[in-house]
Input
Amino acid sequence: MKRRYRPKRSNRDRALAQLRGYWEPQDVSQFEQGIDSAVTKTLKQLGLDNRFNEEQVFEAWNEMVDKFVAENARPVSMKRNVLFIQVLHSTVFYELERMRGQILAKMQERFGKENIRDVQFRLG
Output
């Protein structure tokens, strides 16, 4: 026997729909909270409920470094918990290489050591 997901419409509703030429929308408010809990439950089962959001790191870059560095270097990607920064000038690249430990410590303090393992700089 096939299960119905919507209630069977009454004869009155059928007659009104035939007279008007369309069906009145059914009240689905009882399902709205169920959808929220289903999505939350599914994300938890897949292990995505507390997933690290890499976009937060990209947005925080400008706050963590001074203005000159932020104008000449920007985060490009994150792979295997390594943050890759693209640097425009070789002098800025040299300075960032010297400050790597400080930048990594700030990033790990803010986002956790398990989320950011290293910072790599690329010239270009």
